[in-house]
Structure formats: C-alpha cells, structure tokens
C-alpha cells in the first residue's frame, strides 16, 4: 500500500528551491522528461547519488535521505541546511578575482566548518571553468578559473530556499546500498549513479578509476531489484548503452529520453544525448 504523499509533487513555483551548485549529470534541464515517469505518491524520499539535487528540490518532499560519495558536497548541503546565514556572510566577503580563486582552491577547507565548506564549494563551482568539480591525487581542487563576467555565487534567494527544502532531510556520505536499507513499502528511491560511458575507452579510463565500474553497476541493479520486490518505488537514470540494456531489460522498464548536457568532463559528452529512465 502506497502511503499518502506528504507534500505535493512540485512545490509552488515561488517557493520551489533549485540546485545551488552545478554538477556533472545534473537533471535540471531534463526535469520535464523525467517527471512523467516519477511516482505520484510516496512515503520517504531517498536519493543516494544526490549531486546537484534537481529532482529532490523540485519534488520538495518533507522527509528525505540524501547521500553522495563526495564528502565535501554533503558537507556543503549540511552547511546550507544548518547555517545558511554563515554561508551567505562568507560568500559576501569573497571577491570575484582570479587571484582569490586560485588561493581559495588550495585552501585546506576540510578542516573548516560545514558553512565554510559550503561557501568554498559554491564559490569555486560558480567561478571555475564549466562548473566542474575535479581534484588531484592529493584531493586538491584543480579546475581552472572560469573568467566569467558576473558569476552568481551570492544567490541569496536560492540558498535560503534550498535551506528550507533541506530542513527535513537526513544527509549522509555512505554507500548507496547502506543508504537505502531503511526504505520500506511505498517509499521512493531515485538512483542517479555515475553513468556507464558510451565508449569502452572512456569506460576503463574514467569509470574504473572512479570506483564505479561494471561490477558496481551490477550491484546497483541487484539493490534496485531487491527494493522493488519489497514494494519500494524505484526509478533510475543511466546512459543508453548495451550494458544498461542487458542489466535492466528483464525486470525493469526502460524509456529513452533526450538530455542536454552542458556540464561534462568530456567535451564530447556535451550537447543532446540519449539516456534511459528505468522503472
């Protein structure tokens, strides 16, 4: 039995939050294609690969569990949720200057507060090249300066709306299987994992290095199937590739959608590409 939806899908436009960071694979631009495939009622919302959180912010559920493997991203969410005033105060003090950007990106931000991590990440995300998040082997952020004329890194309305939307969330840095263990019948789990690359060369250079190779994709499928069998509503997004078709064609429904990608590590991955919504 599906429990009553606790908050209408799609909060009123004037109250609806939007992502406060750009993220590779973000769903903001393809929400119109995604929403028809989402459940119309659910209990608790789970998103283990939250990234920029476009779907979460649009649905605005009262109760949610959000997670990501990027500790700094989750700490940024916590900073915005728990101390948005401090985040805004820091961003107001940051100048738009290349020298400041280069100094900030080498700062030992992990020793700071969640609010400091949030301000650090938002500033670098909005002023760095193409909104990328990339670090070297020492976990030092190394994206070049973006040289934008008027980057909006002091977006108070968006940050305050995001803080309100996050008020009922649990934020974790944990494995997707662990995050969804507590999901019960009627809950909604949305998986938006690192995508299977469209070419085998990129598969073994970028994907295996990131720790989400074919074995992890298969494990994700198995977790999704277990959730489905206990009555949890499951949706996934991934690339339109042979591997995804092989993994999901038997027990799930695959629907192709066109997605525009403006933030991508690989220039060939930008533009309009085919993806699957899996349910």
Uncertain runs are 1-10, 201-209
Distinct helical segment count: 11
For the residues shown, what is the average pLDDT? 89
Order of neighbouring strands in the sheet with most strands: 3-2-1-4-5-7-6
The geometry reads as globular
What is the number of E strands? 7
How would you explain this protein's 3D organization?
With 279 residues, the protein is α/β, with parallel strands linked by helices. Helices cover 37% and strands 14% of the residues. It is built from eleven helices and seven strands. The protein has helices at residues 31-34, 54-59, 71-82, 84-93, 98-105, 114-127, 156-165, 176-179, 200-210, 214-229, 242-248, and strands spanning 45-47, 64-67, 169-172, 188-191, 233-239, 254-261, 271-278. A seven-stranded mixed sheet has the order 3-2-1-4-5-7-6. Helix 3 (71-82) crosses helix 6 (114-127), helix 3 packs across helix 7 (156-165) and helix 10 (214-229) runs parallel beside helix 11. The radius of gyration is 18 Å and the shape is globular.
Short description:
37% of the residues lie in helices and 14% in strands. It has 11 helices and 7 strands. Residues 1-10 and 201-209 have low confidence and may be disordered.
Annotation keywords:
279 residues; alpha/beta; 11 helices; 7 strands; disordered N terminus
Reconstruct the topology from this structure.
Blueprint: H1 31-34, E1 45-47, H2 54-59, E2 64-67, H3 71-82, H4 84-93, H5 98-105, H6 114-127, H7 156-165, E3 169-172, H8 176-179, E4 188-191, H9 200-210, H10 214-229, E5 233-239, H11 242-248, E6 254-261, E7 271-278
Parallel strand pairs: 1-2, 1-4, 2-3, 4-5
Antiparallel strand pairs: 5-7, 6-7
Helix pairs in contact: 3-4, 3-6, 3-7, 4-6, 10-11
């Amino acid at each position: 039995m599906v429990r009553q939806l606790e908050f209408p899908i799609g909060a009123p436009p004037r109250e609806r939050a939007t992502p406060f960071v750009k993220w590779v694979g973000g769903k903001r631009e393809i929400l119109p294609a995604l929403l028809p495939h989402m459940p119309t009622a659910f209990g608790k919302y789970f998103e283990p690969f939250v990234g920029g959180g476009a779907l979460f912010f649009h649905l605005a559920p009262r109760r949610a569990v959000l997670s990501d493997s990027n500790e700094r991203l989750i700490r940024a969410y916590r900073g915005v949720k728990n101390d948005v005033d401090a985040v805004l105060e820091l961003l107001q003090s940051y100048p738009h200057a290349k020298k400041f950007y280069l100094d900030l990106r080498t700062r030992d931000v992990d020793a700071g507060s969640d609010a400091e991590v949030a301000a650090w990440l938002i500033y670098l995300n909005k002023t760095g090249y193409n909104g990328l998040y990339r670090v070297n082997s020492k976990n030092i952020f190394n994206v070049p300066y973006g040289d934008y004329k008027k980057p909006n890194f002091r977006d108070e309305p968006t940050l305050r709306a995001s803080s309100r939307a996050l008020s009922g969330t649990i934020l974790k840095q944990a494995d997707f299987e662990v995050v969804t263990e507590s999901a019960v019948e009627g809950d909604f789990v949305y998986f938006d994992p690192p995508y299977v690359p469209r070419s085998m060369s990129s598969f073994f250079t970028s994907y295996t290095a990131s720790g989400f190779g074919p074995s992890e994709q298969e494990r994700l499928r198995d977790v999704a199937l277990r959730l489905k069998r206990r009555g949890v509503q499951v949706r996934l997004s991934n690339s339109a590739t042979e591997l995804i078709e092989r993994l999901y064609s038997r027990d799930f429904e695959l629907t192709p959608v066109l997605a525009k990608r403006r933030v991508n590590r690989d220039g060939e991955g930008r533009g309009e590409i085919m993806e699957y919504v899996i349910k």
